[in-house]
Amino acid sequence: xxxLGKKLSISISIAVICIITFSVLLNKYFLPKYYLYKMKGNIxxxxxxxGKMDKKEFLNAVPEFERxxxxxxxxxxxxxxxxxxxxALREKxxxxxxxxxxxWVTPETLKKVENGQKVNKLYDQGKLKSSFLTSYINKDHxxxxxGLSIAHFNDAAKVINTLYIYVLAIAxxxxxxxxxxxxxxxxxxxxxxxxxxxxxxxxxxxxxNVRTNDEIEELAESINIMSDKLKQAHEDxxxxxxxxxxxxxDINHELKTPLSVIQIYAQGLKDGLDDGTYIDTILKQTSxxxxxxxxxxxxxxxxxxxxxxxxxQLLELFRECLSKYDxxxxxxxxxxxxSNKVKGEVWVEADxxxxxxxxxxxxxxxxxxxxxQKIDISFSESDDKVLFTIQNGADIDGQKIEKIWEPFxxxxxxxxxxxxGTGLGLAIVKSILERHHLKFGVKHSEGNILxxxxxxxxx
Length: 459
Ligand SMILES: Nc1ncnc2c1ncn2[C@@H]1O[C@H](COP(=O)(O)OP(=O)(O)OP(=O)(O)O)[C@@H](O)[C@H]1O
Ligand SMILES: [Mg+2]
Known about the structure:
By secondary structure, the protein is α+β, with helices and mostly antiparallel strands. It is 59% helix and 17% strand. It binds adenosine-5'-triphosphate (ATP) and magnesium ion. InterPro entries: HAMP_dom, HATPase_C_sf, HATPase_dom, His_kinase_dom, HisK_dim/P_dom, HisK_dim/P_sf, HssS/ArlS-like.
């Protein structure tokens, strides 16, 4: 038997043994005395009631009392000769089917009763294994006997106690059997849970199927939920780890490229190979490095920054941002349209500076990368949210479109044209929007790229 089974069977067996031992002791020592006390109480009650009655009432009450209290009542006028008197009483008892081995009213008793005293006697009937409990009273010069035959309880108790021992033995066997069955039913699913927990500790996120309809099933459910969550967290951690590795490799690469260019051009300068452009190239590369470092700092700041939320008008902020690019758009001859289908003012609660960064990045990207000299911006209502979209012509591979949110990812075409930056702008946008719990995304179709954000309105 398993540990739980042993513990359970020992404790239940001890409880049963204690209860039966207690019953045995009770039967042996307490019950006989209690039985006698109760019987005496009955007789006492009858004699007291009879004592208060007149003769007529008494004669009528005798059969009723005999029936109700299972007592025998006989009465006899006093006689000169004590032997005759006892004989007469015996005869009357005999007529009431009470045959006694030992019964004798002594002259002293008789005298006491004649003087109005109540006398109680207990006659042991020897081999009959019973006693005759009597109470004598005097009623209108008649000697009244109220008697009750009581079994020797000790013998009955002995029989009951022997039976108890058998019951105890059978009970213990049944308990062991039941406990074995019960613990098997309990420990089998527990074993399963143990196995799954061990698997989980080895980072194998398994699930367990337990149908016991009790707390064990609830525990299994919790373990399954835990397993799912741990699996998710583990996968997230692995992806983050992977992302970090790529990120570090990318930084390395992004820094190395301009540095090696600087190195080559500086060497060229030293060797007197300068055709008048070397210094400009070195300056451009150093400015690239400082831009990259600034972007990196911005990115890491956004990841850690504590956002300060305030209530402001979204469209007002957007117009402010857009107005800064008026001149650049004019210069590049880019046509910008803004359509606003939202009724009333749009109030939001967010970090205003960070939202400004989002708009700046999206607008500057659209200006930088548009291939049709057009940018279409719109605000519209979508359920209880405000949908913002910004679209421009872009001849790119739509399949890898989701990658543009990754740090340092720049589309080959824009890199080739030397117009792309460090590739951190959209990673910053993503981080800000995620931390504001907003739904956003990018779509590409028919030579157009479209970024969208669902803003939450506040009253
Ligand atoms: N509106 C757009 N149209 C076409 N391509 C875009 C657009 N926005 C982003 N991209 C592509 O996604 C890449 C990543 O954009 P992101 O803003 O993250 O970086 P970046 O503009 O290259 O550099 P940074 O913003 O850090 O100066 C860009 O290099 C570009 O190839
Ligand atoms: Mg950008």
